[in-house]
C-alpha cells in the first residue's frame, strides 16, 4: 500500500461549483414561475416559513448553499460560497437583502434564518481553510508540540507498552512503515497525525478495537498507514455536497459539536470504524486487498450519504454518546 497522494482541499474546493448539480432548465423555469406567483425569491420561500427561534434543517441549509452558489444576482457571495471560503456573515445578510430587494426587518423569521444559514455555510468555509492548513503543514520533528502529539498517540493506543525510543521498530506495531513515523505523514501533513490522534482521544475504544483487527498475524493491515489513507478519503468527501449536509445536520445535534472541524473528524472516525468492520467481513488474505476494500467503503458511504444520510448521522451520534459514557465512568 502506498502513501496517499496529496489532494489539496483548496484545489478540490475549486471544483465545488462544477461538481454541484447545476440547476436544470426546468428548475430555472420553475423558479421563475414560483417567483411570479408568490412574489418571493427562492431564499424567501425556503426560509420565511421557518420559526424564528428554530435551527434551520440541514437539507434547507444545503439548498440555500446551492442557491447562493449558482446565483447570478449575488456574485460577491456566490464566489466565496462556491470556492468554500469563509465570509463576513452580517455583511452577507445585508448584501442578500439589498441585492434581492427584500424588505424584511432584522427580527423577522426570514432574516433570522438567513443569518443562521449563512453562519453554517461560512463555518463550512472555515473548515475547508483549516483542513487545507493542516494538510499543507508538514510534520516537523523539531517542533516539540508535534513530537508530543506523536508520543501521546502511542500512549493512548499502546498503554501497556512503553515506547523504547522515539525512533524505533516499536512504531511498526502501530502500523507505521518504518522506525520513524514522521516520514509517513508526507501525503496528508499534520492532518494525518491530528486525525489519528483525534480517533485515539475521542473514540479510544473503537480506535483500539480497530488496532486489534489490524494486528492479526496473517490477515491484518497497517493501522496508521490506513488511517492516513482514510484522511485522504475524508478530504475527497469534502467535494460531496451530501457531506456538507451531514455536517450541517451534526451541528444541530445536541450530542455533537458546533465546530465543523470536530464533526469532520468524527466523520473520519466513522470511516475508520466502517473500514475495520468491512475488513473483518471480507477477511482478506493480505494487504493487497486494501485498494479494493477502500473503494468498496467509499462507494458504500457515498450511497448511504445520498439515500440515508440520517443513518450516518445516527452512527456518529452513537459514537459520541459512547465516548461520553466511557469518560463519565472513568471519572466516577
From TrEMBL:
Pfam families: ELMO_CED12. GO terms for molecular function: GTPase activator activity. Residues 145-305 form the ELMO domain. Signal peptide: none annotated. It comes from the Eukaryota. This is ELMO domain-containing protein.
